[in-house]
Amino acid sequence: MTETGSLLASLDCRACCSSFDPDRAMGVCPTCGHTLFATYSLDRLGRGRWWNELGRRPPTLWRYRELLPVRRFDSVVTLGEGGSPTLALGEVPEAPGVDVFVKDDGGLPTGSFKARGMAVAVSRAKELGLKDLFVPSAGNAAVALAAYAARGGLHARVYLPERTPGPMVQQCTLYGAEVVRVPGTIREAGDAARTAERGRGSFDLSTLREPYRLEGKKTMGFEIVESARDGSGLPDAILYPTGGGTGLVGMKKAFDELAHVGLLDRIPRLYAIQPEGCAPVVRALKEGAARTTPWPEARTIAPGLLVPAPFASERILEAVRTSHGGGLTVSDRAMVESMRALAARHGLSASPEGAAPYAALGPLVARGEIRAGERVILYATGSGIPFAGKDLLNEFAG
Ligand SMILES: Cc1ncc(COP(=O)(O)O)c(C=O)c1O
Ligand SMILES: [Zn+2]
Fold this sequence. Notes:
398 residues; alpha/beta; Rossmann fold; 3 domains; six-stranded mixed sheet; four-stranded parallel sheet; 13 strands; 35% helix; binds pyridoxal-5'-phosphate; binds zinc ion
C-alpha cells in the first residue's frame, strides 16, 4: 500500500471564498492574505466502516489518514505522535460535582502538542518537495520543527524570542536546526523571520500562515471524540490554553468534519484560557469584537501564551462562539499553583500553559459557566520538564 487514501480535495479561503489546487505548496491565500484551510471529499469517507476500522489501526495520529493531507506513506515523517491519554482527575476541590479529565500531550515527542502540527506539516512539505523550512516560535513549535525536519532530512531555521526557556533553545540546536534569537515576543520574532527569509526560497511554517499544521492539531479533536466511544461520553466543555489559537481552530474543524459525516451530533463548548498579562482573545470575546486588537506590553510566564496579536483571530473567535463556549483569564501565580497541584495531587507534569486550564476551572464553576454533573477536559498542551527547578514568577515574568 503506497497511498494513504487522503481525501484532500482543495485549499479554501474562508475570508474571500477562493479555492486552490492543494497539490502545490501554498502559504496564505494569494488573493487576500488570510488562512487557507484544507477541504476533504468527506462524502467519500464511508464513515461507518472508517470509524470501525480506526480501532484496529496503530494509536498514532496517522490513524486518521483519510482526513489528513499527506497522500503517500513514504512522505510520512513520524516519531510516533498522537494517542495521548485522557486521565481522570475525579472530583477536584475547585469544581465540586464536575467530572474532570486532563488530556495530557506532555508525553508526545518533543514534549508538547506542537508535535501533532509539525509531524503533519513537515510530512506534507516533504511530499511537496520543499527542503528549507522556518518558523518563529515561543519554543515548543521550534523544538518540534527541529526534530521532524531532522527526521525527514529537511533543513530548519527557528526564530526564538530572547526569553525562550534555555532547554528549548538547546534542544533545537541538538536537533541540528539553525537558531536565531530575537528581542521581544513571538510577534517581533515573526516580523524578523519574514524579513530575513524574503527571497531565500524557504517556506514559512508560522501558525495559520500555512494550511497543514492545523490539520495535525485537528487530531486533538478526533482523539477526544474517539475516546468518548468507550461509553464515557463526549465532554461538555474543553478548556484550552490559547496563544496563536491553532488548537481551538483545529479542534473545531475536527468536530465540524465529524458532524458533517454524521459521527457527532453535538459539539463540546470550547473555552479560550489566557494569562491576565496577554489576553487579546478573551478581551475580544467580552467586547463582542470580530477580531482581536494587539495587546500592549504583553507579559506572562507562559511563553506559548505570549501572543499579543494572533494572526487568524477571526477564526479563533468564531470557533469559540459557534461552540457556545467562552473565555477566561488566569494570573501567572494561579498557573504556577496549578502546576504544583497537578504534580503533587495527580502526578502530572504540566508547563505553565498546560496548567492554565486547571487554574480556570474553579472560576468558571463559580461563574456558573461549568456546572455540577458536567464532564470537562482540561487540555494540558506541554510538559513541565523544561520549567523544572525554575523560579517562574521571578525568572520569566519579564
Ligand atoms: C505548551 C503550549 N500550550 C499552548 C500554546 C498555544 O497554542 P495555540 O497556538 O494552539 O493557541 C503553545 C504555543 O506555543 C504552547 O507551546
Ligand atoms: Zn482569500
